[in-house]
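Now read the record:
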Amino acid sequence: MTDETVTKPKTGAKVPERLHHNAYVCADQERTRAFYEDILGLPLIATWIERSEMDGRMASYCHTFFGLGDGGALAFFNFQDPELQARFTAKPQPRFVHIALKVSPATQDAIRDRCAAAGVATRTIDHGYCTSLYLTDPDGLAVEFTRDVEGVEAIDAHQRATAHASLARWTAGDTTPNNDVRPH
């Protein structure tokens, strides 16, 4: 979706400016760095080594951040204590639980090429309104790199105009598809 598609909430309040970071737990910070920085191209922009109280005891952990173009980041925790590490490690998720990042066609192609060179499996899906490159990181996190299709502004405008009616239709039990731009 384009930046112009963000509208103010009905309450008149301001919407958040951007995603600051989305955090996960990784098993190995260097392996995560090599994957996100060397293969995917997201620069390591911060590494915080911290200690704080958890469950009545001091816990040491490392928190890394990999930068996105808008100033946001993907972040990863790694705990020194194996018990805490196991407790906070994400469980395998179905493919519908993932993070999607907007990229240009050139960036998507470059990521696909680096993944192929590194032996990282990818799949591409044309959703009609965007084309997505899917892959999985070393800890099982599904990551999508999506690029808008030509003419996305008209698609976005139509969705803005019909979003509430489509949701009401779905809620009422009408499952008739409304994605008329997706290839069959």
